[in-house]
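tool_call: predict_structure(chain=1)
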Amino acid sequence: MIKKVKSKLLISIKNKKINVFLLFLLLAFIILIFSKLSKSYTNTIAFRIEKVNVPENKVVLNNSDSILNITLRAHGFRWLGLYFTKPKVKIDFSKDVTISNSRFIWTKSGARSFSSNNFTKQLDVIDVFPDTLVFNYDVNLVKKVPVVLNTNITFSPGFDTFKAYQATPDSIKIIGPKEIVDTINQVETDTLVLKDVKTNINKTIKLELPDKGDIHFSHTSVDLKANVERFTEGNLKIPVNIINAPNELRIKYFPKEVTVTFYTSLEHFKEVKPGDFKVVCDYSKIDDEHTFFEAQLVKTSEYAKSVKLNNQHVEFIILK
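tool_result:
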């Protein structure tokens, strides 16, 4: 029994010694790594090029010069970030390139502004190779086309909206070869389906963009917003006016007034007045076979929608 206890104590002591040894070994390794990473190193690394602010009427045709080999001096910690990501640099086509013989040309002489726009103070640019980049381009056609909204929206009873639906933006730019762009005169949206709507509408709708080769679109979606209000029905008596009748004729007609039924929001109900409407009967549109006028609504209130006449027939008698 005593021997077993001694044996366990010896094993425990040995294990503790091993654990302490491993701990010191790990700490020594971490110190070594931090010591190495805190030093400055010079190395060359390949950067992919990101083209920004390319004129919208031009398209870059080749990607053969899509790499810049840049020699940098930086601390080890900064190099870790470069090795674990796909480094890239931006070339601003609005100020970092020149145009010559239908080509964009970037030169090493612009490396000062180039380096300051792409690298922090912790990275020193030593050299850039190649010293010149050439980008061939072609001229694109830029065309503005309207957006056609496709909607299937129904409202809950007593709710509606005044204004017609409109996309924002209501048109987009298409950029690409002329022979392709010329065939596109409009773009449509996906169909927005909403049922039993009783709250304001605020939706983003994707565009059905044609797949016709190397063309670009300024937008891939549009916004639709609509103010939804409570609506009610109203009725007003509107006087009938006879137009285009000869001055020498006396015409008696009945009824003198017709009822107009309209739909409006509760907010604007009191603002809808009889004077906002105008109903006429056109004498020039009758012939010997007609004994009645066809009443027409030629003016309505800006606050009314779904306006209709309850009676469109107006009887008349000509007195000579």
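agent: The longest strand covers residues 229-243. Proceeding to next step.
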